[in-house]
Amino acid sequence: EPVRKGEMLLEVETDKAVVEVEALGDGILAGITAREGDVIPVGQTIAWLVQAGETPPAPTSAPAQTGRRVDATPAPVAAAAGPVATAAGGPRISPKARRLAKEHGVDLTQIAGSGSGGEILTEDILKAAQGASGARKAPVVEADFQVRPEPPTTIGRLMAERTTQSWTTVPHFFVTRDVDATALNAAREQVHPAIERSHGVKATHTDLIVMAVARALVAHPRMNASWTPEGITVHPDVNVAVAIAVEHAVVSPVIHHADRLSLGDLARRRRELADRARAGRLQPADLGGATFTISNLGMLEVDAFTAIIVPPQAGILAVGAITDRVVAVDGQPRVRPTMTVTLSSDHRVVDGARAAAFLSDVVTRLRTIDPTQSM
After folding, report:
1. pLDDT tens for each residue of 300-325
2. pLDDT tens digits, 283-297
3. What DSSP line would sit under 49-91, residue for residue?
4. Active site residue: 104, 172, 257, 347, which one?
5. Model confidence pTM above 0.70
6. Which H or E run includes 228?
7. Catalytic one among 237, 275, 324, 351?
8. Cys-Cys with 319: which of 150, 184, 238, 296 at CB 3.0–4.6 Å?
9. Is 192 tagged catalytic?
10. Known catalytic residue: 361?
11. Could you tell me the end-to-end alpha-carbon distance of the chain, in angstroms, rounded to an integer?
12. Is the dihedral of CA 175, 179, 185, 188 positive or negative?
């Protein structure tokens, strides 16, 4: 079919994200060798963008070298007698809409597309799924009382595999501290108007926590490291990932060079990544190179939890909700806003003393935070 520059052609689902691939120019999409659901080696040609009167070269097999780019020089495009034929059969539907229809069990034959030319769009699928949600119940129980399992999504399956591998191969240990969040709450209220005026975003508790953790990682480089078969690698850059819940999965986009960013720049970057994550538009560069992860479930009113390390990182910080608690202050009971943070560490990279020292530094920074010094 004819396509225009910038038109979304397909989605590639990797182990970390769904990446949209756009047309790099005007032309006719032809010579398609891949179909929905195919697993394709990196570097394999799956289609050609040609001009009217041209035909793509005969398909060739590419080396299946997963994880490495395979560069190849395209063969010359030979002239043909006529234009490439338009694909036919079935409703026109974007790859993302087709994937959503499969996940939500939507019958495409019952949907009238709202796109130009009757194309079925993502919005059509979500509307149909929402309309059918009232009829959906708990997992179907057959007459023999066997529960029909719900098949996992690709990202859900990969997340299950990765967390299982981490939990069974990385020697986790945990260190927990309570944090007096009085200064943290005051800092957020203090900088909120200025950050919103200068950067157009709201500074959150998560932004302040990322700032404190990033600076603590500079002071404790062993926590900013990874275990490798050759030994421990200490990373020169501090790249902090922030776990974000999206549909059917959790993704962790990365704030690169977090220790060098002002609070305003950090807040804007985190907001951009969160918006792209929830829209399913994260790029591979948004997900690569993390050296440490923060998972904050405070907004979901979780008091405390432990998180599974994301290899090859050495640690992940689990952050709970800020709640009023009765604590001892100068020997007297006082009510203070308090949150619990739990550090999961890879014992191959850090021992208990190093992990405790790092967490103590983070807690001190949060208790005495002065965001105006880095706005």
Report:
1. 999 999 999 999 999 999 999 999 99
2. 888 989 999 999 999
3. EE-TTB-PPPP------TTS----PPPPPPB-SSPPPPP-SS-
4. 347
5. no
6. strand 225-228
7. 351
8. 296
9. no
10. no
11. 50
12. negative
